[in-house]
Structures are given as C-alpha cells and as structure tokens.
Amino acid sequence: MSELTEYCTAEQYKGKATMEKITSLAKRRGFVYQSSEIYGGQNGAWDYGPLGVELKNRIAGAWWKEMTRLHDNIVGLDAAILMHPRTWEASGHVENFTDPLVDCKKCKSRFRADQIPQENLTAKKCPDCGGELTDTRKFNLMFKTHIGPAEDTASIIYLRPETAQGIYVNYKNIIQSNRMKIPFGIAQIGKAFRNEIVTKNFIFRTCEFEQMEMQYFVKPGTDEEWFAEWRKQRWAYYEKLGIKMDHLRWHQHGPDELAHYAKDAYDIEYLFPMGWRELEGVHNRTDYDLGRHTQFSGKDLQYIDQDNNNERYIPYIIETSAGLTRNLLMIFCDAYDEEQVAEKGNEDDWRTVLRFHPDLAPVTVAILPLMKKDGLAELAQDIRTELKEDYATDYDQSGAIGRRYRRQDEAGTPFCVTVDYQSKEDGTVTLRFRDSMEQIRVPRAELSARIRQEIKTYKRIK
Ligand code: GAP
Hints:
The strands form seven sheets. The protein has a seven-stranded mixed beta sheet. It has 15 helices and 23 strands. Mean pLDDT is 94; it is low at 1-8.
C-alpha cells in the first residue's frame, strides 16, 4: 500500500508529511541517500549526506549531553563492534535472537510470520498473491562472518546486533578505572547490525544502524524504582527537544513480546507517517546479562559494596535503548511542515519547512548577501567568518532572496542573516526567523549574542 493512501486521502495530501515526501526531500537536500545507488542500491543500508551527517551528529550530541554530562554517575564507552563469539552465546543471541520467517513458494516474497494476518498463516496463503506459504522457520538476525584466513567454525565472528554487550563485558573495568559506585551508568553510541527480513519505510528498519544505549547498574530490589525513574527521564528528554508530545505514547510489552532478557519493558512509540512505531525501549534486564557472562567467562562479575560491609551481588540493569538513525527519522518527520504562505496574495504559495530545534538543525545560520556586487558579498563573507567559530553556517548568494529563504527553510536552518545596502551604511543586518518568517534589524556587533539568546529561549510555534 502506498504511504499516501495509508496515511491520508489525496485531498488531505497537501500539508501532510508522508514517507514519500520525507524520502524525496531527504535525498534532494543531501540528508540521506540510498547506499550504492549507482549499482541499483543496497537493501537495508543508507548513506548520510552533508546535512544528514550534521543532523545525526547533533542528535547524538544532544543524547550524549543528556545521558553523560548532565549526570555525575554516568560515564561513556566506545567498545569494538567485533566481540568474542562467546559473548553472543552468553547473551542468548545465538539461541534466541530470531524472527519467524515464511516464504511464498509462488511469488517468492518473504514475510515475518508475526507480521502477516493469522488467517494467512493458518491457511498457508500468501497475503500478496494467494500462493502457498512454506512452514514457519526461525531465522537468526545476527550477521555472521569469519575472522582470519580460514573460513571454519573456529573463525566465526558476529557483527554486534546491539551495543549493550560491549558495556556489560567492560563493567568491571569501568568500576576499577573510574571508581564507580552503584547506582551508576555507562552510555554508548555505535553501530549495530541485524539481518532484518523486512526493511521498508526508508531508514526506519535497516540492517546497519546506530544505537544510543545507556545501561544503569542498580542494587537488586531497587530495580523497579529505577525503571520508573528512567521511563520518566526518557519521556522528559523528548519534551525538551520540542517533539510533538501528542505524537508520543508508551507501549508496555506483553508476555509474548518480552525479549529473552527482560522482566519488564516499555517502548516509547512515535506516530510516524506510516503509523505508531517503536522509537526507543526502556528495559529491566535484571541480572540476566551479568549472570550469564559470569557463567560463560568464569569471571566473578559481582559488585562489592565497600560502603556496606563488602556486600556482594550481581547488579540489576535498567537499559534505555534508542536508535540514533531511527531518532533521526522521527526528528525529520516531526519537523516536517508544509505551510501555506499568503505572500503576494498567491493562495497556492506553499513552503516546505523543517522546524528542527536550533540545537539540532544541521545549519544554524545562513548568511545571504542581497546582491553579489557593491561589496555586499565581501561583507557577508566577513560576517560568516565571524559567526563560524560559534555556529554551523552556510553562505548562499545565488538567486532571488525569497528563493534562498525557501531553500534554507527546507534545510531547517532556523536563522538567516541578510546583508543589504543599509548594512554598509549603519552596520545593521536583517535577522530572519525560519518559523515565523519575521525579520528584524540587528547591529552586526550584537548578532552572535542575539542568536545565542534566541536558541536558548526557542519555543516551537507550530
Ligand atoms: N539493547 C536492547 C535493544 O537492542 P531493541 O528494542 O532491539 O533493544 C533498541 O532495539 C532500539 O534500536 C529500537 O527501539 C530502535 O530504535 C533501534 N533499532 C532496533 N533495530 C533496528 C533496525 N533494524 N533499524 C533501525 N533501528 C533499529
């Protein structure tokens, strides 16, 4: 089904975000391209272009600040993607990290058995062509490869399917090197890989993606309290980023949805153009992971509480696990707006605008000389050089000024600075706001401070 008919009727199409529009804008403006496009594209993999990599870095930066700098007891880690294969036996991924898979014998389509109607499954009837379906079989999602020259069972190695395990195997190192005391957390951002059967909806579900995970180590018995606390904090985080809160909701995992390691789990779901989908998970992983690593490694992974008569225990873990690339898609969809602008009385005049929070926008300030001549371009370049130290800037001197504003709106640039003839005379410039399209005159000397102030007090108006 096309995204258009799934989400809105043709009459409602204008003004709405659809996955088709999001994907097309993302490519056109250099946010995201299909991987290996010149060879016909690689399923499940995407490349982040100049604006995309800036946006991704800023989302990662905002999460990192929130989860490490704003907490005295959370530290960072960057563990290797390749880990000892025993890690994945201990974690349960070799045995349990599977999806149920069925194939259509006629049209060769492949489905996740849990994502097609039960009646099709029972009747073994393909939902696409009506052909016969195969029996359901388990399919492990981990990418398997070999390390070293020999391709035998002894050289098998996996691409990590979650970043979490790199944290668990380092938890004792970090306690020792950083004198951490429970409760404490370890945060990590990095790539993860899953051999997903169904990859659709652009960058929503991909085979190569990035996660932002934080593992919080707590005393058994206090886990439910911390679980509730982290749910609260993760919700507040999205509010702080200015996300439309009526597009977010909680979903508690039922017994049949819980991962093999979880005692309790809640997803934060977002209302994407294709419907409500998981954005981030908060999980109570109990002592499952550290218990299993103790068993498989033979190392003692108990915490010794020196402030409490050297009491020993395996900590419980509360995990907050968000997709970075999925966050990017959410932030893109959330920011996307088409607005009718009654400029020059033209009713059919629409602008596409990405209303990114200024802390996340790939470009913060664009500097635009009204004309290239009469020294305006030089003056604008000079202002750009000054602002570069503090902000991500862009410079654009080609085309009519209205068109240049629209280009910046589409890239989500919150501020435009226009340099005109008056700037040469009195040293003021025009500061234009993306959301309201309001323009004010500001002395050049006050520009940087004014922008800083506007970012600090930013409130989304639509
Ligand atoms: N460590 C726990 C864990 O990995 P998960 O629910 O499987 O839990 C956590 O994944 C988050 O990672 C998801 O909420 C989602 O944002 C992101 N994610 C998972 N699989 C993904 C995929 N194939 N493509 C993009 N993001 C994915």
